[in-house]
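Fig. S4 source data, part A: sequence.
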Amino acid sequence: MSRKRLLLPGLVVFALALSRVALAQPAADVEALKKDVQAIKEGQQAIQKELAEIKKLVAAGSRPAAAAEKALNAMVSVEGEPFKGDKNAKLTLVEFSEYQCPFCARHVKDTYPTIDKEYIQTGKVKYVFRDMPLESIHKNAFKAAEAAHCASDQNKFWEMHDRLFENNKQLEPAMLSAHATAIGIDAPKFQKCLDDGKYAAAVRKDMSDANRLGISGTPTVLIGMTQTNDPNIKVLKVRRGAQGINAYKAAFDELLAPAAAKQ
């Protein structure tokens, strides 16, 4: 009998033994493996969703610049809108933004702190926030905008503004009350405001004004001269997207120069 014929039965027995070992693995290990596979699938789906979102935002931002520049020289009202800084600052910055937008969150994290420190806190710029939730791609953005205004009823607009941007992947309507509690406001009153849609019309008005100005993406920032006893500003500069601080410094410094006062 050849060696191969002698070895074959042994290999079969060994293979059967291995299969028995595999089958004997604890059910918990098999369940853990299934969970790992599911987690990988969900991770891939999340990546695909984010890529699709980025493509849409890039497509919106790649439209002819003339569309957004429609805002140049337009008159924009800031009456009744939440603001930071000296109400009589020489310049007024109006930011159209939304809480679920990743580019807006990047702007808030990377660029806004320097604008705040060097221009808002020093009395040079009045900063105004207006809502432009992109409902077609960000299903939670509109209700989040309402949430910030409901927080303003308890003098916590900016605290909610910051909280929402810090947690901009956790903006499901069911989570908004938890964000309200986290910043120390009366949750039941906040929830009633949200459920009643008290500020829905105000958010819609901001969206309508943005559309009138040719704004199609967020963040879009309009900069103009503050008018004494006049809630309107004339737009002199437009900044689109999450640009670095130098783009803002250039605009501010040009408009703050003495010659700009004649505009």
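Fig. S4 source data, part B ends here. The two ends are 105 Å apart (CA to CA).
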